[in-house]
Amino acid sequence: MPELDSTVKNVVNETLDPMGRSQIRIFAEKFAKIPGIIKMTLGEPDFNVPEHVKAAAIESIKDNDSHYSDQKGILGLREAISNYLSQRFDIHYDPETEVVVTIGATEAILDSLAAIINPGDKVLIPTPTFALYIPIVKVLGGIPVQINTTDDGFRLTGERLQEVIDEEGADKVKALMLNFPGNPTGFVYSKEQLEEIVDVVKNKNMFVISDEIYAELTYGQKHISLAKLMPGKTILINGLSKSHAMTGYRIGYVVGPKDFITNVAKMHAFAVTAPSNPAQYAAKEALTNGIDDPLAMRDIYQKRRDYIVEQLNDIGYKTLLPEGAFYTFSKIPEEFHLTAIEFANKLATEGKVGVTPGVAFGEGGEGHFRMSYACSMDDIKEAMKRLRAFTEQLKN
């Protein structure tokens, strides 16, 4: 095996080199090695991809559809995305010029930020939130500005947003990252709450990148896209990973005004050329004939949510009822005198339950832990038994 030559050991990207890997992945991999552990770390749906969707991918392979697709994605899929967004959320995009199919929503985030950020530009990131926003901004030369939303029930208020913009300098703030339904909190913005944000942003020289990957997984309320309220300044990100349990197919997409999407498409082409054809045809089928496939999954998630939240609060972990996604985000009792990382490590090694420490989701996550209920009810019930026993040991 070759060793890195001494003459190039210091030839590195000085922004990327000191960064660690995703804390979510680090803890998931670490805890997976513990025998008998129940893993509630990753947001990985435990459902299979619907059969008709799998069949579409197989058919693509049988048809020898093995050549490059259009770099922005096959037109049929872009049309399906456009029709889906129109039907589901009453937002409208031209499939020819305003839609780019990406390798998962993660690439859509990278491409969108790359189309905005110049060195020194600031991006506002309410935390706790999806862990990858912060390092992506840094790698691109931007400055992530974390906004701790814990005291506001995990939502960004219009008043707080205005305060931060004033503090950071409106001329330096180029974008706001908004994630809802929220990972890790499950928070969902109402129309009135979104209008607060729109009122602050509408006259400023900044975009909002709205990551709505969990839009199909809301409980008791209909998801309202920010793009419905502010289409000219909203860059909308979504995908098939969560809605149709297609995490391994790696199909996401970004939509927005034509002039912005032109630059997104450039970055996308530089990075990946084009998505995989079988995965694209599967996604087209999912958004054409499988538009209601997520409903049955959502009903099951809701039953799991109701059970786990009741149990967590009963055991002594203050947990708000998630309005969307498939995570709980719980407060670690101060009497334990444990940081989020210390608690997660102790629970994994002694209680045999794997959770993600809240600090993995930014500064606003300290003192909390995330559990994914995208796993079986049997696992959830056993995890709650173990958590209860572990908690009694901590108290004694």
Automatic annotation (TrEMBL):
Names of required cofactors: pyridoxal 5'-phosphate
Pfam families named in the record: Aminotran_1_2 (PF00155)
Keywords, comma-separated and alphabetical: Aminotransferase, Pyridoxal phosphate, Transferase
Family statement: Belongs to the class-I pyridoxal-phosphate-dependent aminotransferase family.
SUPFAM superfamilies listed in its UniProt record: PLP-dependent transferases
BP GO terms, sorted: amino acid metabolic process
MF (Gene Ontology): pyridoxal phosphate binding; transaminase activity
EC number: 2.6.1.-
Protein name in the entry: Aminotransferase
Xref: Gene3D superfamilies: Aspartate Aminotransferase, domain 1 (3.90.1150.10), Type I PLP-dependent aspartate aminotransferase-like (Major domain) (3.40.640.10)
Highest taxon in the source lineage: Bacteria
Species in which this protein is naturally found: Companilactobacillus suantsaicola
Root EC class: transferase
Record-annotated Aminotransferase class I/classII large domain positions: 37-387
